[in-house]
Design a protein that fits this description.
Number of strands: 8
Order of helices and strands: HEEEHEHEHEHHHEHEHH
Helix content: 40-55%
Radius of gyration: 17 Å
Shape: globular
Amino acid sequence: MDTSLVPQIQETRKFFDQLGNIYPPNETVTITNELIDNVPCYWFTPPTIDSRDIILFLHGGSYALGSFQSHKAMITHFAASLKRKILFVEYALAPEHPFPQGRNDATSVYTAIAAAHPDVNLFLIGDSAGGGILLSSLYDIYNNHVKTPAGIVLISAWLDLSCENESYHTRKDPILTQEEMKKYAGYYGQDRIREADPSQLIFKQLPPVLIMVGTQEVLFDDSFSFYEKASKIQPQTNLMVFENQTHVWMLTDIHSVAAINALENIKIFVEK
């Protein structure tokens, strides 16, 4: 790793974490921390819980950014709206911890939770790069014969580390650029980008899938391409396209019509 990158990345992480201050958290949700298989994790527990489902959340941040701080407020609202306990997984970040460390962290936490809660339905939600970590971890879960999730939700998922889908060139995205994405793909994949690339994974089976993406995203075709693959092997695959929405729109405005719509549909999905 180029150690000269670390101060720059640390500054960018501080900036990214400020996303967590855009709107206040839902104060009714209780937060506790737990170290699971040496991975820092946080439980978000709403005052009312509809079922014994557990949701594991894998955050975005281009595989190099993002933390409890950046996503705390959003996850409190997710927990309150979905009426489920959410476990937020703070997996190791690149470039200090490149592929496959983040993927391994997610898999080990999921495996530990599956073992500790054998009678509970487990769901995985990932936004942006967290969606890529999710699919990579899901691939390991199937190969390791661990209890599979009851469903997965991908929000503005970054799944193609080559960054060459058509939407990288054609969509007007006010947040992400192809150039920036390629830089972060290098931080994460380094000299193993193709091996690290979630779009290269071949699944023979999948749990039910819900995919959400905004029309103003360079990552639009990452979602669409995965939808086309997933729907061939899992009939319960749904793609929701949100008009005029930007990357992970609920992170910047949880009270928008589009964010409320997204949460309502995630709740319907997990309840099924």
